[in-house]
Amino acid sequence: QVQLVESGGGLVQPGGSLRLSCAVSGSVFSFETMAWYRRTPGKEREFVARISSGRTTYYADPVKDRFSISRDNSKSTMYLQMNFLRPEDTAVYYCNKLGGQWSWGQGTQVTVSS
């Protein structure tokens, strides 16, 4: 059974940065296209970014040029570097394989506020 553990969230001022981590166990991580998602109260979970096994990346328009997704296959871990954070980035952030086919982890809360 695959387990996903997100970490690195917190409270940050607008314009600040955070680095999220996603530790994956129970799967051959290196072969999977992985993705970050986020959800705010009352809204559906939305796609943020993805990274293929070959490290090809793609970003949703709201985060393009501000966020950077990466992975370390030796550690079965994926990262999301978030820069120039905005209040509208406030959400619970989740990781999963692209399509969200694994059971979701607990997520990590990111709050952008002055």
How does this model look, in words?
The structure is a single chain. This protein has 114 residues and is mainly β. The chain has strands spanning 3-7, 10-12, 18-25, 34-39, 46-51, 57-59, 67-72, 77-82, 91-97, 108-112. It has a 6-stranded mixed sheet with strand order 2-10-9-4-5-6, with no helix packed on it. A 4-stranded antiparallel sheet has the order 1-3-8-7, with no helix packed on it. It is globular and about 40 Å long.
Fraction of residues in β-strands: over 45%
State the helicity in percent bands. Answer: under 10%
> Based on the structure, what is the oligomeric state of the protein chains?
single chain
Structural classification: mainly beta
Tally of helical segments: 0
Number of strands: 10
End-to-end separation: 40 Å
Mean pLDDT across every amino acid position: 96
Strand order of the largest sheet: 2-10-9-4-5-6
Biggest sheet architecture: 6 strands, mixed
Give start-end ranges of low-pLDDT stretches.
none
- Please provide the ordered H/E string of secondary-structure elements: EEEEEEEEEE
| Shape, principal axes of CA atoms | globular
> What would you report as the Rg, rounded to the nearest angstrom?
13 Å
Defining traits:
globular; mainly beta; 114 residues; six-stranded mixed β-sheet; four-stranded antiparallel β-sheet
Question: What topology emerges from the helices and strands here?
Answer:
Layout: E1 3-7, E2 10-12, E3 18-25, E4 34-39, E5 46-51, E6 57-59, E7 67-72, E8 77-82, E9 91-97, E10 108-112
Parallel strand pairs: 2-10
Antiparallel strand pairs: 1-3, 3-8, 4-5, 4-9, 5-6, 7-8, 9-10
